[in-house]
Amino acid sequence: MKPIGKMITWINAVASGIAGILVLIMVVHVSADVTMRYVFEQPLDATILYVSAFYMVAIAFLPLGLVEQKDSHIAVELLVERFPDKLQTVITFFALLVTVIVTTAVAIRTGQEAMSKYASGAYSIEAGGKILVWPTYFYLPLGFAMMATVSFWKLIAMVTGKDSGLSLMTVEDPYLSEEKPNV
Questions:
Q1: Where are the beta strands (DSSP E) in 32-169?
Q2: Strand, coil or helix: what is 121?
Q3: pLDDT band at residue 173, thresholds of 50, 70 and 90?
């Protein structure tokens, strides 16, 4: 199980790394647009399209697998944390099962839409030119497929009682730990 878990971890890291690089590219792009607009009075064409369709969608959806892997989705544990351990395990099992079903369905449906946009060669007209936007439709099925994969792998690990092999890749913040940091 561990080799597959490590592979899933690596794919999530790559997808999240791409999203991180896109954040940096977006910052440079928007900064260049602002500079060109206010210093040279020549704004860059289609900045809003690139930010909203290319950068932001990728930044929001590509890391979904890693967020699920690290259990970083929003959770309200106020009541459940008071339940007995066995009941918490049952609730976790059903939550993972529902997550697998829903994210798989969303990945399939958004994948169908992405293929439709690809087949039609979807584009946007900006500043008199055609900009292909069909590639942006593939971010959603990729992100949801990775989230479904991670959830499914966690479910298998829970049922078999084996280590999933998923790495949490966390960096400890010395200011959040109980021990005082040596500064």
A1: 123-126, 129-132
A2: coil
A3: very low
Token reading at 138: 């593939």
Measured distance CA(66)–CA(142) in Å, rounded:
12
Q: What φ, ψ does residue 62 adopt, rounded to 5°?
A: -60, -35
CA distance 132 to 155: 38
Distance CA 178, CA 29 (A): 41
**Which tokens sit at 153?**
């792998």
Two tokens, residue 176:
């959040």
> What's the full length of the chain, in residues?
183
CA–CA dist 72, 93 (Å, integer):
17
- 96-149 pLDDT per residue, tens: 999 999 999 999 999 999 999 999 999 999 877 899 999 999 999 999 999 999
Check: pTM over 0.70? Answer yes or no.
yes
What does the domain layout of the chain look like in residue ranges? 2-160
By three-state DSSP, how is residue 1 classified?
coil
| Cα–Cα distance measured from residue 46 to residue 24, given in angstroms and rounded to the nearest whole number | 18
Q: How far apart are CA 131 and CA 142, in angstroms?
A: 22
